[in-house]
What we know:
- The chain is globular, with a radius of gyration of 21 Å.
- It is built from six helices and ten strands, in the order αββββαββαββββααα.
- α1 (3-22) packs antiparallel against α2 (52-72) and α2 packs antiparallel against α3.
- It has a domain at 67-213.
- The protein has helices at 3-22, 52-72, 82-101, 131-151, 161-184, 195-213; strands at residues 26-31, 34-35, 38-39, 42-46, 74-75, 78-79, 105-110, 113-114, 117-118, 121-125.
- With 221 residues, the chain is of the alpha+beta class.
- Strands 1-4 form a two-stranded antiparallel ribbon. A two-stranded antiparallel sheet has the order 2-3.
Amino acid sequence: MPDGTRRFRFLVLLGSLLMIASGFLPWWHAGGDLVNGIQLPAATGIGLEGAGLAIYGAALACLVLLDIGYMRGRWGDLTVPDGTRRFRFLVLLGSLLMIASGFLPWWHAGGDLVNGIQLPAATGIGLEGAGLAIYGAALACLVLLDIGYMRGRWGFVLDAPAAYLTLGLTAAGALLYRGWELWSLGYLPLPQRSPGLAVAAVGIATLLYGAGSGFGARRYQ
């Protein structure tokens, strides 16, 4: 891969990661002032809301396009064997499902009608608690895929099935812990009640299967 192409792809990767990181940082803050001895309520908003989701989506799309572009490319007389391409595609697919699961409902409480009174309803998504570990593992997989392809013939020590397997097992542990948390609170996380948890489970299984199938595959031919 020419140095110019590698440099531009690295800058796209770096910019995308900064855009994604910005979504979890405060974008605005209101309230919290002391008026006549009374502390007003404070509120803070992060970037993963409103138009900020478009920035997040654009950054994630850049990561995916980088991965797909590398997967379909070649470097001089070096090509990616089908076995390696297949396991990387499964890692990519599993990671995307894990990321998507973070924006789906994981639990729902309230909303029932008791004695003619509607109880308040609350819903939680995956980007909280142990779900953040699943999101982080998926994002790390995307970054490792990009860096591994960027390094080309020189390779990258963490761009290996063992690394993806470790990240997948970490995500699986976080998923089991989150499921236990919900169950211990009396909430049964069935797929129809917790679609986010179900999608995360499918994504983690796909990632683990892809990582497992990558052992023994040649990097180039």
